[in-house]
Amino acid sequence: EAKNRGRSCYSFFDHELDERNKRLVEIQSELRNALERKELFMVYQTKNHIHDERVYGFEALMRWNSGKLGMVRPDEFIEVAEDIGIIDQLGEFALVQACADLQRFESYSSEPLTMAVNVSMRQLTNSDIIATVSRVLNESGLEPAKLELEITESLLAESMEELQPILNGLLQLGVTLSIDDFGTGYSSLSYLTRFPVSTLKIDRCFVTNIVSNKSDATLTHTVVGMAHKLGLKVVAEGIEDADQLALLRVYGCDIGQGYFFTKPLEFVDMVEHLKQQQPQPDWAI
Ligand code: C2E
Ligand code: MG
Ligand code: MG
Ligand code: MG
Q1: What residues does the EAL domain cover (predicted)?
Q2: Which residue has its alpha carbon closest to ligand 1 atom 17?
Q3: Phi and psi, residue 157, nearest 5°
Q4: How large is the ipTM?
Q5: Which among 9, 75, 92, 196 is most buried, taking Cβ atoms within 10 Å?
């Protein structure tokens, strides 16, 4: 009896593993043609000034609407794209699209705006990234300082030596570098001073419990202070309500991002959002 139960549990687990492998194989084979089938697109989430909630800029996030699999999350497919060697193409698509869309968004804003694009480790360790970013900037005519590249923290710590010249090359193009998901990786504070980054993004997992959990609040407050002493700008991710925002304001955090301001929106929906953000002319009130 016990033996039987053990066996059926085992085969249930086995079955789950099979399902997961099957999905992975499907993602791998479908993703190869996703670009040419035009199944990939970018959505945008605003970053807002913490003190007055004005729009500061955007983060571009990739979406995949697969004909066969439906919507697939980037958490699932970015890693696969790295594994099957197509992350450079996906990354270039993201850059081209995001730079072009920023210029369109700016026509709906009275202030200059910025665009952040995520860059994964495989993209960074391939030194072609410098040429790619340079070409995209030239072709779009975008002012380099408006483009921010977000690099995930855990990846940075792994290969400092290898990355240093590439990060410096990118910096020379005039783009901004920021550390994403700060606090989740193995946090060696020393690389904050060694890497030429100008912005630090505090991971959502700290912000989520900032109101209820005293140690998360202390940590966030401390990270903001430390970053400022190092001359870095601080962005808080995952702000979902006004209480979290109020606390971050007290801590002096610079920029905020999260569902409280906007969910990631498709291009046309972001244009509508921006139109609503513009100060109304007198005659319209
Ligand atoms: P990330 O760069 O840390 O992006 C933030 C993630 O948090 C996004 O998930 C966003 O939709 C989500 N988010 C934003 N505000 C909130 C909030 O208030 N509450 C909650 N619960 N979530 C929020 P998404 O779009 O699923 O992206 C996941 C990750 O996939 C990104 O994390 C990034 O590492 C990666 N990724 C997305 N697009 C790209 C891309 O174009 N290239 C590369 N290399 N990676 C990408
Ligand atoms: Mg990011
Ligand atoms: Mg993040
Ligand atoms: Mg992330």
Answers
A1: 24-278
A2: 238
A3: -60, -30
A4: 0.98
A5: 92
Token pair belonging to 82: 């790295």
pTM, 2 dp: 0.92
* Pocket flag, ligand 1, residue 183 (CB < 6 Å): no
CA-nearest of 150, 259, 155 to 202 is: 150
Residue with tokens 């929906």: 269
Quote the tokens at residue 151: 């690099």
Report, as ranges of residue numbers, the positions in the chain whose pLDDT lies below 70: 1-13, 154-158, 186-189, 280-285
Name the nearest CA neighbour of 262 among 235, 244, 238, 284: 238
Judged by its nearest atom, the ligand closest to the C-alpha of residue 61 is 1
Q: What is the pLDDT of residue 161?
A: 79
> For residue 90, which of 79, 103, 101 has the smallest C-alpha distance?
79
CA of 11 to the centre of ligand 4 (A): 33
Q: Measured between alpha carbons, how far is residue 212 from residues 206, 243, 247 in Å?
A: 11, 10, 11
Our answer on whether the CB atom of 179 is closer than 6 Å to any ligand 1 atom is no
> Atom of ligand 1 at shortest distance to CA of 74?
30
